[in-house]
Amino acid sequence: MRIEADTEVCIGAGQCVMTAPELFDQSDDDGVVIVLEPEPGPEFATQAREAVGLCPSGALRLRE
User: Fold this and answer.
1) Residue 11 belongs to what domain range?
2) Backbone torsion region of residue 14, taken as left when φ is above 0, otherwise alpha when ψ lies between -120 and 50, otherwise beta
3) What's the CA gap between 9 and 59, in Å, rounded?
């Protein structure tokens, strides 16, 4: 599993950080997503899928 983020599309809503703080953070400068764990282990699969699904701008993708 690999998490990909398009920082040009991200609007800084923070849904990913609230859903999976182990996997995501936000830039202090502009609030854009930072992927902390681009290849999370299977124990984070549910949180990763939920965060990607909740992203309002569609900036996150999950490659299985």
Assistant:
1) 2-63
2) left
3) 5
Number of separate domains in the chain: 1
CA distance 64 to 52: 13
pTM: 0.94
Do 61 and 12 form a contact (C-beta atoms < 8 A)?
no
The tokens describing 42, both together, are 């299977």
pLDDT digits (tens, 9 = 90+) for 43-55: 999 999 999 999 9
Residues written for the chain: 64
The domain that holds 23 is classified in CATH as 3.30.70.20
